[in-house]
Amino acid sequence: MRVLYFHQHFTTPEGTGGTRSYEFARALIARGHQVTMVCGRSERSVLDLPLDPARRWHRGVIDGIDVIALPLAYSNRDGVARRAWTFLRFAFRSAAIAVRQEGDLIYATSTPLTSAIPGIVAKFLWRRKRFIFEVRDLWPELPRALGMKNPLLLGGMSLLEWLAYRWADACVGLAPGIEEGIKRRSPPGRRVALIPNGCDLELFHPASRGRLDLPGIAPGNFVAGFTGAHGLANGLEAVLDAAVELKRRGRADISLVLIGDGIRKDRLVARARRENLENCHFFPPMKKTAVARLTASLDCGLQILADVPAFYRGTSPNKFFDYISAGLPVVNNYPGWLADLITEHRCGLVVPPRDPIAFGDALIRLADHQEERSAMGRAARALAERKFSRAALSRQFVDFLEGVERGN
């Protein structure tokens, strides 16, 4: 089977983003299939591929994956208009590739939602090709919940989502709420698989607490870490609110580390300086292998999102799975399916949204009770191994694609 895989934000472990598509592509290749990955080439992806000036793209083989990288600059700091323009440029150039490149199956993953366009176009022109659409966020529910009010943008998103669900032969959702949303808007009988993000058990694993190679962290401090984007959806103001509460209680022994970048980062850093929050430490994005080494030296992971009901059952954050792989207890600040997992498996603490006192209480409890913290960490790793092994999820993914391609 020849798979055309479209993911604008594709990256390898040498980059600074999630590697789900990389791992799934490798699983397809291990099963004997061919994969051409079409992606954007940005500072996040760190893809060192030769330029084909005639076609205006970079192309080469990475770990058996034929990668076509379109030179479209993208940053988490870009505004809405610039990001939208980049998304559309990628989508229409990808659509041309989808029509011209040989392939038996097209697999397109959001975000952005516009990644569905090459699959829709190719399916319309070549109906014999199979098209599977992977949904990482529900649109337009999520942007509407985050405050978007432009009726043209929201209407366009809704139409594109409707087209994607109707032209796709099958869909993949990353969270229970996403799976439910796809089924609500898809034709009856549409095949939908729930395949969440997974745990890289060999890369992220429990280890003896090492020395954190980060400036400003006092030896012996309890260190809670967040690794991910600093955008509007992430709601990282909640971490700074907790930092204020810890400062008020005199708990200078608890350090909060935030690693990543995004449109809200400058504002967060400015607030921390203005309020003299010396317990907050900001660092730039790191490639995944470096994040894995650092995570092993944290005392807990912070799973933080803005208090938006669309997130409760509709997200599958990479960072959560990295934390539990590393055997870290997780502090989570919003309800939903991940909060239920944490509570059921006793692998961390769930605090109410917008409650810095409860957030501070949770961090102090973990800092002051090492045995309980260790038990939660062991439970986290056990959950990772039992339910979210990347290897097992990759097998499920390949089985699903093979079944769709056969028409089963």
Tell me what the structure shows.
The protein is of the alpha/beta class and about 400 residues long. It has helices spanning about 20-30, 80-100, 115-125, 140-145, 150-165, 175-185, 235-250, 265-275, 290-295, 310, 320-325, 335-345, 355-370, 370-385, 390-405, and strands at about 1-5, 35-40, 50, 55-60, 65-70, 105-110, 130-135, 170-175, 190-195, 220-225, 255-260, 280-285, 300-305, 330, 350. It has two domains: about 1-200 and about 390-405, Rossmann fold (3-Layer(aba) Sandwich); about 220-385, Glycogen Phosphorylase B (Rossmann fold, 3-Layer(aba) Sandwich), CATH 3.40.50.2000. Helix 1 packs across helix 15, helix 2 runs parallel beside helix 3 (about 115-125) and helix 3 (about 115-125) crosses helix 5.
Summary?
This protein has 408 residues and is α/β, with parallel strands linked by helices. The protein has helices spanning 20-30, 80-100, 116-125, 141-145, 151-167, 176-185, 237-248, 265-274, 288-295, 309-312, 318-325, 337-345, 356-368, 370-387, 390-406; strands spanning 2-6, 34-40, 51-52, 57-62, 65-70, 105-109, 130-135, 170-173, 191-194, 222-227, 254-259, 280-283, 300-303, 330-332, 348-350. The chain has two domains: 2-198 and 389-406, Rossmann fold (3-Layer(aba) Sandwich); 222-387, Rossmann fold, CATH 3.40.50.
